[in-house]
Amino acid sequence: MTHPDTAPQTLIEVRDLSLAFGRKVIQQNVSFDLKRGSIFAVMGGSGCGKSTLLKSMIGLLRPSSGQILVEQEDYWAQNNRRRTELNHRFGVLFQSAALWSSMTVGENVALPMEMFTKLQPEVIRRLVELKLGFVGMEQAIDLMPSEISGGMRKRAGLARAIALDPDILFFDEPSAGLDPITSARLDDLILSLRDGLGATIVIVSHELPSLFKIADDGIFLDAKTHTPIARGAPRDLRDHCTIPEVMAFMNREATIPSASEAKG
Amino acid sequence: MPEQTGQAEYAAVVLPHVMTQNQPPPPDGPASGTPAHAAWSLETQTGTPVLRLSGSWDVAHGGMAPFPADGLQDAPRGQTLQIDTSQITNWDSAFVAFLWDVKQAAGHAGLEFDPTSLPDGAQRLLALLPREPAQPPAPKTNTDALLTRVGDATLQALNETGTVACMAAETTQGAAKTLTGKSGMRWKDLATDLWNAGPSALLIVGVVNFLVGAILAFVGLIELRRFAAEIYVANLVGIACAREISAIMTAIIMAGRTGGAYAARISTMLGNEEIDALEVFGIPVSSYIILPSILSLSLMMPLLYIYGTLIAILGGFVVAMSMMSASAVGYLTTTFDGVALHEFVFGFVKSFFFASFIALAACRVGLKAGRSAADVGIAATRAVVIGIVGIIAMDAIFAVIANALDI
Hints:
The structure holds 2 protein chains of 2 kinds. Chain A has helices at 50-57, 80-87, 105-116, 121-134, 150-161, 180-197, 208-214, 234-240, 244-250, 259-263, and strands at residues 10-21, 24-35, 39-44, 65-70, 73-74, 90-93, 168-172, 200-204, 217-221, 228-231. Chain A is an alpha/beta fold. Chain B folds into 2 domains: 3-128, Transcription Regulator spoIIAA, CATH 3.30.750; 166-405, no CATH class. Chain B is elongated, with a radius of gyration of 37 Å. At the A-B interface, helix 4 and helix 6 of A face helix 1, helix 2 and helix 11 of B.
């Protein structure tokens, strides 16, 4: 635990970010603050650029303009080495878990620790058991990723994401492909890890019940205008937002009400 | 007065309330600003056992003190273990790992573990963990008797032979149907595969065969010069390349290039559930993937062989022209007088069989592969190895047949 009292409240600041593939603009004018200890939801319809935004925050895609400030440090202005150092403070759970298929589950979790810490092998083994224990996967430590189910792979991916005790956890569609019970348990797990590890969490998801339950801040990206159109916690957006697209999304409506209906 | 500390070597009795450093500080004392090392001490003599923790319990500062599994055996049973964490400065998962050990040891010693005095975050994390770490299943050992293993291997080999034979039969059937336009194969796939197996391989086949022809001519010239039989180098290069070398070299190149690609592509499709999707729709995998692959390689490789042979002869010609005093026309005439047409036919037929074998083996290996990225690599390697070994073995069989038939 670092000292939360002395640390600044804003962990990541995104300023006027534009994302594009070549000349095709995905999102522009994206600005938001990521508060320490919050669970931040990135919402929006399919193809609006949620995952692309996530990719630019974890160093996989250079934004075409704008800044991402990690504790006042311009992330994309750093050289590769410094960026990799910053990345050690991030833990990422990929959409398909992305476990390395040639290693056992335990080796997957152990690899970052072997590469970036000077811990003894038996200490690493103990920590791997612990991380897998957090996600209820300690019995699968010696199995290969191909031998376990999709939900288990996700949990193992989460154990790997928290291997280096990261400050910030990024989740790309954590509950995609999970049954409702597993998905609800994952929500509890995310809350426990946030409180336990003191991590800040960025979550890209479509899973509305889960977003209403855990997220306390967020941004809504619009696919048509390629800009964010709403900010705030998902449950507040559901209850108070009057923007038709956001209302339709939050209430799972098949058609977007016209502006006049929304006002009336 | 039972007393234990975090340092195993200090098993001697120490006074209560003495906080012992887990690791001895450096001789000049800890520098100001560096957090103290993680340390713990245990008091069991007052009735309620108390575990006192101090220092910085995080991974970065090596704060991972092991707690012995029998560390709480001396405490009276049925008591509640008190944990005093007021002296710790920092903690992360190393701290939770230690507490997990303590909780297990408390369970073994019949003590109550009371987490309420711990920091909130640690309580939440500890609640996620199971009471006992599950024992991972014992590693599987192969204890079958030798006879069983030999039997298994034999059955597997027979099974595999049968499967490959079925695939070959299906492909032949499919090829026959293609002639009448009823195979269901998409012509676009065949065109793509034909392009990949043929024209796009011209450069590498050409370069390799040119150099092989040149090397043969060079070595041949030096030896034949001693007998003043230099002109026979034309026959040497021509016959060797047409009968054996161009056919084998081309087949080996294609086994590495196209066979490996087939196996990798099919096993990746397997991993992406593309093959499953085909099966559910009832689209036969044989006509959709395997038939165009095998057909295209079988059609293209004999042509590549002819091209390769001509290039090899050209390679020999270039070296011969630069090293001996014969006319270009004379050399070429000798070549085509010396190499009978049936040599080409022999090589052509061999190439066809090599190609069918490479494609069939690669497709089979791909379909049999596992579903992960590592398995794709294994499948590609295996396809190339089987392809090359098979080519050489088949060539030996062809040589025996040719000898028997006096070709």
